[in-house]
Amino acid sequence: MIEGEELQFIPFLKGVSQEHIALLAEKFERCEFPAQEMIFAQGDPAVHLYILRRGEVAIRFKPYDGEALTVSVIKPGGVFGWSAALGRNRYTSGALCTEESEVYRIRGADLHKLCLDHPQTGVVILERLATVIAERLRSTHEQVIKMLWQGVNSHNLR
Q1: Which domains does the chain have, with CATH numbers?
Q2: Would you say 47 and 82 are in contact if contact means Cβ atoms under 8 Å apart?
């Protein structure tokens, strides 16, 4: 459990009522990871949703037939590991600390229970999570197009 005051300064939770923050603070815990440590690997059981407090985390996806690609870089205040919040069994990407990092994390099961027990809080959190996911997908889409163009251009140079 962490103090509610810590959570109210996170962009993801900015403007959320003190009542909602207090309910969330009971479920979050703080963790630290050294640089180059995997927080979770692609395919690991999806247990926690994370909010980066300090540091930097690369979200890496390894396609079946290629090298692992960095599809997103998470900065402080960013949210990742949302497979757990979506009720997925496994993470679809991995999360690697590119520098020493500190995170807040909440178990996906605890978040689901909180949403059921406190629907008003659940609506606020799920709406914000939907916004984060939509932004990440838009960003990832742009990065994939860029990588494809780089591949086409390098192929044309041969």
Answers
A1: 4-14+29-108+121-148 (2.60.120.10)
A2: no
